[in-house]
Every structure is written in structure tokens, then in C-alpha cells.
Amino acid sequence: MATNKPKHIGPHVFPNFPIFGRLLGYASRDTSIVINDVTKEYAVTHIQLLTDVLHLRNLLYDSLEDKVKEQLWRGEEVYVNLLTPAGYEFAVGFFAILAIGAIIVPLCELK
User: Fold this and answer.
1) What is the pTM of this model?
2) DSSP letter string, 28-83
3) Angle, alpha carbons 23-15-65 (nearest 5°)
4) Which of helix, strand or coil describes residue 19?
5) 3-class DSSP state of 106
6) Which of 15, 45, 83, 101 registers the highest number of CB atoms within 10 A of its CB?
7) Beta bridge mates, 35
8) What does the pLDDT look like over 46-99, one tens digit per residue?
9) What is the helix (H) or strand (E) element at residue 94, kind and residue range?
């Protein structure tokens, strides 16, 4: 018997990936610092991290061309470059790209 299940999507919904389930679980019961970025002086909890990831994920998704959104919807491979210094911004960018269903290509800044 086939059942039609809606996709796990929406502006306030993370994909049904184990990593997001784990982070959401921690956010619901733990207020300790999960990332302490001393270079930028950020100290954030799980809930702040997830809030920032959702915000960036929505901005990234809205900036994509319709063709790319269709590729993501079909489950095709879409690669997104991530160029940011190591730290909090990297973590947020990493999870935001993962949350849109794309493949992360981390790049290193050459000095």
C-alpha cells in the first residue's frame, strides 16, 4: 500500500537528516555554548546556530535560479562553493548548504 508523504520542506523546517535531528534535540534541552569562535568573539548555543542556519539557508535558496531549485527538488547533485574563514561563519554556511540539499565544496582562502 503506497502512501503519499509530503516532503520535509518549508522555511522553518530542516531536512530530515540525522545531523539536524540531533542538533534540534540538543537545542530543545541544552543552553550551553556549542561554538565559541574566539576570532570573531561569537559564543552561540545550539538554538542560535540553528536559527542562523535557517536564515542563511532561506537566503541562499531564494537566490538560486529556478533551474537549480528544480535540480535540488529532483535530488540531483548541485555543488555550492563555500569560501569563508574557519569559524562560526563556516559552520553556519556548511549547515545552510547541507540544508538546501546541495553538496558543499569548501574552499580555502589563499593569502
Assistant:
1) 0.87
2) HH--SEEEEETTTTEEEEHHHHHHHHHHHHHHHHHHS-HHHHHHHHTT---EEEEE
3) 125
4) helix
5) strand
6) 101
7) 44
8) 999 999 999 999 999 999 999 999 999 999 999 999 998 889 999 999 999 999
9) helix 88-99
Q: Which residue has the cell 537566503?
A: 59
Grouping H, G, I as helix, E, B as strand and the rest as coil, residue 10 is coil
**Cell of residue 92, nine digits:** 553556519
What distance in Å separates the CA atoms of residue 35 and residue 3, rounded to the nearest whole number? 40
Cα dihedral 64/65/70/75 (nearest 10): -40
88-99 helix and 18-29 helix, angle to the nearest 10 degrees: 120
Cβ atoms of residues 66 and 73 within 8 Å: no
Encode pLDDT of 12-50 as tens digits. Answer: 899 989 999 999 999 999 899 999 999 889 999 999 999
